[in-house]
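Help!! Second protein's tokens look totally different from the first
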Amino acid sequence: VQLVESGGGLVQPGGSLRLSCTPNGHIFTIYHMAWYRQATGKQRELVALIRDGGVTNYADSVKGRFTISRDNAKNTVYLQMNSLKPEDTAVYFCNSELVAGPAGHLELWGQGTLVTVSS
């Protein structure tokens, strides 16, 4: 089972991007899906998380600009990023805790997708 990410790229300050992430394989339960990011020379940090049931958490730095959502039918999580700033530049990683067959209870990380905010 892997997390498949898409949607990164280059965008000008003030622009928008949408990231998506889907686990492939036979998924029974998803406890949470989240986006983390890691900028060059910095530690990986939580950006946004959505739990089973829809409860969300956001880093203070992205509140009001980013929105995490989930399509349960597709087991897909989205991160809509608006009003992007140069300091949002980072590699964004999808993370999920789930139960999949036949592997069982897993915590997975995606391969990362680069978001660059620059004029």
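Here's the second one for comparison:
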Amino acid sequence: QVQLVESGGGLVQAGGPLRLSCAASGRTFDIYHMGWFRQAPGKEHEFVGSITWSGGSTFYKDSVLGRFFISRDKAKNTMYLQMNSLKPEDTAVYYCAAELSPGSGYDYWGQGTQVTVSS
């Protein structure tokens, strides 16, 4: 089992930055990949970006490329999502998730943290 807890959400003005954290506990040694997802009211759950836990390779949704940056601190078992130049359309509940084996899918999810970007 892996437990994930997000933090860092809040209200920010358009153009501003915000950093989210995702703290992992439990079988963290088994984590292969971690990702960020978001869901806005009335919209589909969508992939934002991800990072391979070992090598640190990152992948991003096109609309956040160059604005959002994912990193991880393996010693702290924590993943981060640095969000810059935020837009009102980035408003959503943000979730982190963990994949334990390549291709197994995201098996574990956090409870989510609200990000609201005011115009």
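Reply: Different proteins will give different token patterns, so don't panic. The chain has no helices and eleven strands.
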